[in-house]
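Mods, move this if it's the wrong board.
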Amino acid sequence: MNFGRKMMKAGVAAVAAIATLGAGGVVASTAFAGGGGGNQPGTGGDLAAVQFWQYKDDASGAWGPATSLDSVRAAMNNAGVTLEGDGVTKAQAALDQARTECETGFQRRHPGEGNGDCRVVAVGAVPAVIGGNYIYNGSGAASPTGTGGWYDNWNTYVAPGTYQYGSTVYRTSYPFDDDPSNSVDAIMRRNVEASSKPSIVVIVLDKYQPAPPSYHLSISTQAAEMSGQAGDTKDASDTITLSSDGSKTENVNGT
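Not the wrong board. Structure tokens:
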């Protein structure tokens, strides 16, 4: 199983079995908290399982937009895990919960600036080991505590790393610029604690988290051609061109 650069390796003593989607287990998030997390519980059973985390936020981007389940698939593919069966249903539910929390919080803190362009940065799950293959079918569950558990793997393989969003280099413990009471670590803990049998957790961040990317505005002008004749009274005008590395809209007045 390929758990990737910032990942735990197989070794948690947990159990899983193919079963139907369990009810409940979704926690109510802090009102208007920054970022977002979603979670779903597992059902337990009698097949071996392992817990893994995949975290990505670097110069090439995150796992993908929070509007697409393919972003969760990308994280699982990187870990060598196949998403299928009830796992698809649970992964979509966790993603939808995380995206809704992220967008609602962003709209509350930054009214009039859209939905926040929320991106998937982390996926944690408990796939079953079936015939030597790692399959997330929604049934796996692992203890939050203990060696190889959700917190241990996060603290060992994710928290020590440094990540990059735009020009901002950060760790998961750093408070968000637009919500200092929150962090990626805090989102993780809220969602792992949401169930006694956590099975999948998805974490998304908005475009200003953990901090807004640096923004530079440049202005250039191009003078219009003039006749050059003495006494010419025609209006003269310049063309003003703006360019930026950000996404904000600029209003420019000129005379």
